Amino acid sequence: MELNSGAPTSFSRNQEVFGEGEPAEYFYRLKSGCIRTYSTFRDGRRQVASFYLPGEYFGLEQEKIHFFTAETVIPSLVYVIKRSALTKRSAAGNKITSRLLALTALELRRTQRHVLLLLKNARERVGQFLLELAEREHTQSEIQLPMTRQDIADYLGLTIETVSRVLMRLKKATAISLPSPRRVVLRDRSLF
Amino acid sequence: MELNSGAPTSFSRNQEVFGEGEPAEYFYRLKSGCIRTYSTFRDGRRQVASFYLPGEYFGLEQEKIHFFTAETVIPSLVYVIKRSALTKRSAAGNKITSRLLALTALELRRTQRHVLLLLKNARERVGQFLLELAEREHTQSEIQLPMTRQDIADYLGLTIETVSRVLMRLKKATAISLPSPRRVVLRDRSLF
DNA sequence: CGACGCCTTGATAAATGTCAAACGTCGTGG
DNA sequence: CCACGACGTTTGACATTTATCAAGGCGTCG
Hints:
Order of helices and strands of chain A: EEEEEEHHEHHEE
Helix content of chain A: 25-40%
CATH topology of the largest domain in chain A: Jelly Rolls
Distance between the termini of chain A: 36 Å
Strand content of chain A: 25-35%
Oligomer: homodimer
Mean pLDDT of chain A: 93
CATH class of the largest domain in chain A: Mainly Beta
Radius of gyration of chain A: 18 Å
Largest sheet of chain A: 6 strands, antiparallel
CATH architecture of the largest domain in chain A: Sandwich
Number of domains of chain A: 2
Low-confidence stretches of chain A: none
CATH superfamily of the largest domain in chain A: Jelly Rolls
């Protein structure tokens, strides 16, 4: 069961879909493109909480306001779903609540994996990031990276230089090849 | 609405409540004591995912098996709630699903805050940990630490030595005082 | 009172961050 | 189709933070 209906909304690159602290009146489902959610600290550092790929839901809040900001990484099409349309007490209400519970539990599991990732060293973080992306893009070995090194760094809790160095080291070790900075071919996963 | 009913089960210190990979047939609610959930890496490192205090729910899984291990930190009383008793399709089913959704969303929000915490430096991690614990223990200024330095370190992604050093530095800066290693008095939160 | 577990402290090492500069890539316009 | 420019990425030298290893102290509970 998918919750979206109607026409998707179009967003250009780096455009805000919703902002931290704004009222959370909608849920969202990505049709195409890529989304990042993040939070910014007082000192300007940014933590990317998640990336979302086509087919995935984001902005699922039970609270009244958004905890993160959501932006497009590249031009994207987004289904916008009114929360109030889903909370009706009806025969369908139970089913929809169950669906929301399943989606929230999925988000929780992903966030738990993210916590585990942040404990590891730089090589493991980058390696697991690539593996996860490959799985979610449904590709065997070649990954398209929609996001910049800065986005990846802010997701993994590293600096852009460290991310770059790890990728270059993985390349030298023939674990991956980099036809271009935004394309990664996984060659030997045992070296991650 | 609370989901537990009947008598709580008693657990001694460092006793396992459920194990990673085991079938998730129950939900749990802590009556007294303290629980930690964690996962262990191949190399033996341990990541503590969460601590739970009296009144809080844990082990809420939608999947069939547990993702983490749960253990008591100190002797504890735990309400054990059969999942299958909650999933009945009934008039109450809708309410219970809504309650589970709210609890799962709360767990997600805590995990998201944990991710943000892991990006900060050692002082900020320890400081925020103390503040959060004070809030959850419903105390103004004096915190009881049920857990060891090792538990705290494994939760914050630090070593036991670093946690100890940060606490000593906070003490020297009069941000806190330590009547004993397991009791912390918050004296000046602006110094965190 | 003694012993064990837990915590603190110190010296040194390793990983990652910071700062700076050069290099590539890709899109744009001539 | 080629040249240019901007943005993004890579690379290097050095600084900082935290981990590691080792030893000593102190609390708590028999």
